[in-house]
Amino acid sequence: FQQALIGNRNMEDTNKFLTKFKGCYFANIQLNLEMLENLDDFEIRDDDVFIITYPKSGTIWFQQILCLIYFEEHRKGIGNLETVERIPFIEYNPQKVDFAERPSPRLFVTHIPCYLVPRGLKNKKAKVIYIYRNPKDVMCSFFHFSKELTPSSTDNFVEFMKLFLEGEVVGSLWFDHIKGWYEHKSLFNIQFLMYEEMKKDLRGSVLKVCKFLGKELSEEDLDAVVRQATFENMKNDPRANYDDKLKTCFGIQKKGHFFRKGTIGDWKNHMTAEQNEKFDKIFQTEMKDIPLKFIWDMN
Ligand code: A3P
Known about the structure:
This protein has a 4-stranded parallel sheet with strand order 4-3-5-6. The radius of gyration is 18 Å and the shape is globular. The chain has 13 helices and 6 strands. The protein is of the alpha/beta class. Helix 9 (202-213) packs across helix 10 (219-228).
């Protein structure tokens, strides 16, 4: 599988952090290439649930929500398992967890593009939840995350925007990621959910997800999920905020945080009118055939 590796392309320092596998960039730290290589044959159970995201779209947030829905002791705050242990990444598996040994229902998270997905997911029984977010906010969140947490990324926003729009980042091109999943949605048992929708109506979003998962929570439990999935709560909860896991799980040496602002529209504090216009033009061209609902500018 060495042939599949086209990473570290001697381009710029920013790319030292990346490994390209079958056309998609992954962070090379803690990357489980063997798993990626055998992903097609990954055995899927009917009650598996997969969270799929492009990076910086609310992955950890949704991991927390799913944990709270599924695990009562997580909801009651009496379990000491961290979110990442309850819902492991498929492609980054530093603890070498044997996924086949995990009890059902298994919950997973991944940034993989649609074309790398395990074949068994197309049986339409296992569930997939795709979380997406305004790509301008994704880009700004990604810029800070890369600058603060990755070893060799740029601290220049103009440069980062170029990398983002060329897909020279983990997850490759945002447009390709979302289009791949959306255009093939009929192959999966999939629910799309927007970060902005969760921000605007967390309770409604949790209910929507529960319905999709066939889970019924009491009003009291629903309240607990909503309460514990707020930005402030998660930021201060060591089980949810990944702060202690940065090194062991992601091999990150720097002292940044996954929790930055958690807001809608932070791009307005980063992008000039000209940059915004350029982005909008690309967005309109790339997304013209995708009738997904976008409510980006909502406050
Ligand atoms: P910002 O950098 O804009 O603050 P991911 O988990 O996919 O890496 O996404 C990280 C982004 O989700 C960060 O965005 C982070 O602050 C935001 N986030 C995490 N938990 C959140 C929550 N409970 N509510 C709102 N945003 C949240």
